[in-house]
Amino acid sequence: MKQSSDDLMTLPVEVGPAGEISRGAGISAWRQIADEIAADIGTGALAAGAQLPTETQFAARFAVNRHTVRRALAELAARGLIRATQGRGTFVEARPLPYPIGRRTRFSEIVSRAGREAGGKLLQSIIQPADPAVAAALGVALATPVIRLDTLRFADETPISTGSGYFPLPRFERLNDAYLAYGTITKALESRGISDYRRLETRISARPASAEEAARLDLSPGRIVLTVDSTNVDMDGIPIQFTRALFSADRTEILVES
After folding, report:
1. Which tens digits make up the pLDDT trace of 158-212?
2. How far, in Å, are 6, 19, 44, 208 from residue 57 at the CA level?
3. Residue 152 in 3-state DSSP?
4. Are 147 and 177 in contact (CB under 8 A)?
5. Do residues 221 and 188 both lie within one domain?
6. Are residues 193 and 115 in the same domain?
7. Predicted confidence (pLDDT) at residue 18 exceeds the cutoff of 60
8. How many CA atoms, within 13 angstroms, populate the side-chain half-sphere of residue 47?
């Protein structure tokens, strides 16, 4: 099978002036394009959150076909440098969000302190029997009914984390309605008489995202996610929340406070 010049990869070569691809020099056109765009991101010429030109515009700029551009953009997405959003376009990924985890951990406050706008969406709420991990964390008997809230949380409309929060019943009956009314877990808990609470335990690990998780977090398939299991207690030390959350490793920088 004959290879096209776009597919050849041997020795590295310098990319020419902006808009020029070095032909026949031993490195594929798609990689030259990816490297040039990555360099623009690295220098700030393409700022975090900036929308990229379309495939057609890139194809005209570099005098290549759209397939070549598409492959270059796929490489940048795999590196975690850009993100394609259906119906909106392709954007430069924002710098990782510093996310400190300590005795007092509040998603909305953390995002706001970073100068970004926090948001949340309730995906579903169900009542289910507590499995062994949930029962142990909440200090209830196995199979005791708990309310589960599945949420997706954002910073500047970019998905940052998704997960399931489990809350004991009947203390937090209809907590889903409070979340829909107030938009954050903290305010929803306040409406149920929890004026403050603290983090008791956090467990962090990492793994590749499943196809469903990647789609929910708007990630390239197989990207690494951080799994964060945590337990919160009220000021009397009574467990009120167990959460299994996933964070995009490309978009967050977990800081463990002592």
Report:
1. 899 999 999 999 999 999 999 999 999 999 999 999 999 999 999 999 999 999 9
2. 18, 11, 20, 33
3. strand
4. no
5. yes
6. yes
7. no
8. 2
Query: Predicted confidence band at 121 (pLDDT cuts at 50, 70, 90)?
Result: very high
The proportion of the chain whose per-residue pLDDT surpasses 90, expressed as a percent, equals 69
How many angstroms separate the CA atoms of 22 and 209, rounded?
36
Task: Note whether 75 and 136 are same-domain residues.
Answer: no
Q: Are 170 and 194 in contact (CB under 8 A)?
A: no
Strand partners, 101: 256
Residues 130 and 237 in one domain: yes
Helix segments in 155-210, DSSP class H: 175-182, 185-190
Q: What is the pTM of this model?
A: 0.76
* Domain span at 213: 97-256
Q: Burial, 130: exposed, middle or buried (Cβ in 10 Å; 0-12, 13-18, 19+)?
A: buried
DSSP state of 126: E
Residue 166 exposed, middle or buried by CB count within 10 Å (0-12, 13-18, 19+): buried
Amino acid at 97: L
Compute how many other C-beta atoms are within 10 angstroms of the C-beta atom of residue 66: 13
The backbone torsions φ and ψ at residue 75, rounded to the nearest 5 degrees and listed phi first, read: -65, -45
Q: What is the structure's pLDDT at 80?
A: 82
Place of tokens 């076909």: 65
